[in-house]
Amino acid sequence: MTAATGPYADLVQPGFYDELVAPAQAGDVVSRRILEFLRGMSPQELAQRRDAAEVAIRSMGITFTVYSEGSAIDRMWPFDIVPRVILLQEWERVAQGLKQRVDALNQFINDIYNEQAIIKDGVFPKWVLEKSVNFRPECVGMQPAYGVWAHICGSDLVRGKDGTMYVLEDNLRVPSGVSYMLENRAVMKRTFPELFEHQDIQPVDEYTTQLYETLAALSPSGYEDPTIAVLTPGIYNSAYFEHSYLAQQMGVELVEGADLFVDSDDFVYMKTVEGARRVDVIYRRIDDLFLDPEAFRPDSALGVPGLMRAWRAGKVGLANAPGSGVADDKVVYAFVPEIIRYYTGEEAILPNVPTWQCADEEQCAYVLDHLDEVVVKPANESGGYGLLIGPHASETQRKATAASIRKDPRNWIAQPCLNLSTTPTLVSRGAQDCYLAARHVDLRPFILSAQDQYVTMGGLTRVALREGSLVVNSSQGGGSKDTWIVDADSTTPLDGGA
Fold it and tell me: What are residue 164's phi and psi, to 5 degrees?
């Protein structure tokens, strides 16, 4: 493998595209400014900035929960002070590709619960739907407002070694992480205010306004000021910080299932000290099966009895709509390019990562023969659970995954082990001794859909903090970075600023 050369070669992991170094080496003024600024700081100064960021995170109460940690409910949000940069000119194309993708997926979900034309036309195989664990028969025949089912989508993007941006997966059930995108920006402004002076960094703080407007558009009441509530499973949920943060930022109610009831008129009401108050729209952060014990799991203590009845009667708006998860299936993901072509008549702007489906006998045989080379994923897990990264796995882990694949091939897909892009990240050798080193990253932008579509300016960049690791999930030891979408055309030239 050829060694990297150039002024920032020590920040590059050979064989990988670096998000900051590659543009700088190509002459990009934005990346060069950031790298030169960071390299002008001593290890002690970098440590001081890192400490300042941690103080800000602690004072702002930014936390997340790891289920496996028993007594310790909350952990401080892991944040890296080196931003990830994407130029606005590239981002505009990515945003267009995300809108195209989510529009097609919403058409797909609507079709699947109604005409199923895509199956009748032979574009999407019926067997995928027949074995889908997230298909909800209770939703058949429903027509949500605007034909939109997944109002909030978080699609994960990765960049390959040639610089191509791929969609890795689509999260259409209850995607998390947007609050950390917003808080990362707030922390970054406190930590590196001088870097915001000379660059046109696109703002992210309009997201909660856009989210409110998306939810308000779902109100069946038509009231100008509908009552909106965020429905959370409670404080033990890993995303509780986000639930409370979004409710607070939007100025809407944060409720648990016990705070709501469905009356005989099929409207949803919230219990208040002033009596029952009708709720028009619910941003539910509870999985389908726990949403309504009348319709799904009868033992659920998290949901609201009768909520599906109220939704089907058109008395309440639900985001995301129940059943959206039918498209949040990694086997469905493999068909997204065909789904886009079928519903929009266009080619996908953003490519998929090549995918083998283990339900296909020939493809499954290939996967089983190459487990030490590929990444294997269960079709309906999230958060990095159940993942096998073949080259980094032990023989015991590979045998266990092979057995799971043979037992239920429909539940597994595999993808090539992409050389995920890297970006410089602060690494500690000691309390006051820090240096920059390449770490792998992905990106989760968020797409809102109702009467209009909106894509966040960037998204949540997740970073694998361990050297060589490809696992970026916070629940698996990953961290995060502020993502900067920068307009290079209106950025101060390098000789005119910091």
Answer: -70, 135
Q: Phi then psi for 412, rounded to 5 degrees?
A: -135, 145
Compute the distance between CA of residue 437 and CA of residue 434 in angstroms, rounded to an integer.
Answer: 10
How far apart CA 161 and CA 146 sit, in angstroms, is 39
Interior angle at CA 314, CA 171 and CA 253, nearest 5 = 65
Spatial distance between the Cα atoms of 127 and 379, rounded to a whole number of angstroms: 14
Cα separation of 211 and 208, whole Å? 5
What string of pLDDT tens digits covers the 498 residues of the chain?
445 667 788 889 888 999 999 999 888 999 999 999 999 999 999 999 999 999 888 888 787 766 655 555 567 788 999 999 999 999 999 999 999 999 999 999 999 999 999 999 999 999 999 989 999 999 999 999 999 999 999 999 999 999 999 999 999 999 999 999 999 999 999 999 988 888 899 999 999 999 999 999 999 987 789 999 999 999 888 889 999 999 999 999 999 999 999 999 999 999 999 999 999 999 999 999 999 999 999 999 999 999 999 999 999 999 999 999 999 889 999 999 999 999 999 999 999 999 999 999 999 999 999 999 999 999 876 666 678 988 889 999 999 999 999 999 999 999 998 889 999 999 987 777 789 999 999 999 999 999 999 999 999 999 998 888 877 877 677 899 999 999 988 766 666 544
Neighbouring-strand partners of residue 166: 158
With contact defined as beta carbons under 8 Å apart, do 416 and 354 qualify? yes
Tell whether the torsion through CA atoms of 453, 95, 112 and 118 is positive or negative. positive
| 156 contacts 442 by C-beta, under 8 angstroms | yes
Residue pair 172/151 in contact by the 8 Å Cβ criterion: no
Do 346 and 357 touch, CB atoms closer than 8 A?
no
